[in-house]
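The passage that follows is intended for readers who have already worked through the single-chain material. We present the inputs for a multi-component assembly, then the predicted structure in tokenized form, and finally a short commentary. You are encouraged to pause after the input and sketch how you expect the pieces to fit together before reading on.
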Amino acid sequence: MDASAIYDTLKARFGDDILGFNGEGIDPSITVAPAALDRVASFLSDEPAFAFDALMCLSGVDHGSGKDLGVVYHLHSMTHRHTITLKVDVPRDAPHVPTVEHVWKTADWHEREAYDMVGIIFDGHSDLRRILCPDDWEGHPLRKDYHTQEYYTIGGKPVRVPV
Amino acid sequence: MAVQTEEMVLNMGPQHPSTHGVLRLALRTDGEIVTQVTPHIGYLHRCFEKHAENLPYQQVIPFTDRMDYLASMNNNLGYVVTVEKLMGLDIPERVEYIRVLMAEFNRIASHLMALGTYGMDIGAFTPFLFAFRDREMILDLFEMACGARLLYNYIWVGGLSHDLPPGWTEKAIEFLDQFEPRIEREYNPLLSYNKIFIERTAKVGILPPETAISYGVTGPNLRGSGVKWDLRRDEPYSIYDRFEFEVPVGHGEFGPLGSSWDRYYVRILEMAECVKILRQALAQLPPGDVKAAIPKNVKPPVGDCYVRTENPRGELGFYLISDGSPKPYRLKVRSPCFTAISALDIMSRGGMIADLIAIVGSLDIVLGEIDR
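Having made your guess, compare it with the prediction:
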């Protein structure tokens, strides 16, 4: 099924929760309202006509200082061999997105990574903690307004980061 | 008085020879039975994605070498294909053929490393030495082509860093002629059909196909579960659609489908398929200039794209966002080992601690890519 047909079906079912469609880029994408994301994801996964059984990639994105954060989901169906991209934008001061961990297990660790790197909070995630950075790390390194530390501490003593 | 037993939490790693790098596993054990495995990763984290945002597109390539350092050519290829797709570049025929040659040679080298170290995890030291003997010859070929043995920086946006030197193809064919019969004659009797090896691996680490897909497990690990899915055949990139080859899958010969042995054996069979592709590519190799199409400025237009390629360890994906500047705005790497190790818990529950070694080894993980 091609991307515009997927968009039409979603638009008919979810109405205003489907915010837009971009068919011009290399990968066609559908923008979804954050609150509806888990329902849309379950629908895409369970509906036999779509059968998106694989989440290829989940990326946290910072759209720039002072702008929104985003999450991008690349879905693929092993059954029908079609792909679609879902995009979600959330405000920087309250970046909440419902988890899709129960739909695709891949999302479990990828959501932890997006939380660790970009600071997106996945509501309902079973174990949302840092995955790549140490547990006591401050800030989210892939945010565009992230300040690289000048010091870190070893055994309570500050050590200057070599430049 | 009745004997009381409690669950115990054991720490395995980060320094442990069978974790293939710096991986820490927190095991919850009931006697010798593993009831839960919690992998702790990040010991090798260098924030590749942050580096990439601060470098011009061409200078990111050496960083991709250092992710999966056993398959650097394939990493180069995956990244370069992504940038080229966003730029809409046309690549000369010769460049495409040499890229495929390098990627497939690196796949054989990577699989040799995987099966050699896997044998060693289980206690078989000899196959490791045999595998390194053959891998060494592939590294010699790479050294001839680009001067480096492990981290190549060979595949560039639009071209290659060097053309093949004179005598390279003859040496490559010589290697293939030597290597091909060795799979049947040496690796299979030494390790694949070794009774002890089969007993250790064929009944542990069962990964059913649906679970594998849900966890995003890809590559030989997915094919070991019987799913015939290979991006080189199913979503061809570069010029893979021109070659004839089979996609080997696991059949559960010695135990349930999707066992550690099935994953191991898929790699053995894949090496023979690589040889097939290499022979075709070497026979068709056209003349040409490998640097003609290299753009002076790499500035992809505003936009984003996700490209995945078949690495020896599975599907390596790059999600690239460009804002039109000479540096990537955002580069996300989807690592095949990252998803494979996330399925470790569900695969090893209910098994013995010793089986855990046989499961981790069969996933063929490289920590440099998991942590990036």
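Commentary: The radius of gyration of chain B is 21 Å. The first helix of chain B runs from residue 48 to 53. How closely did your sketch match?
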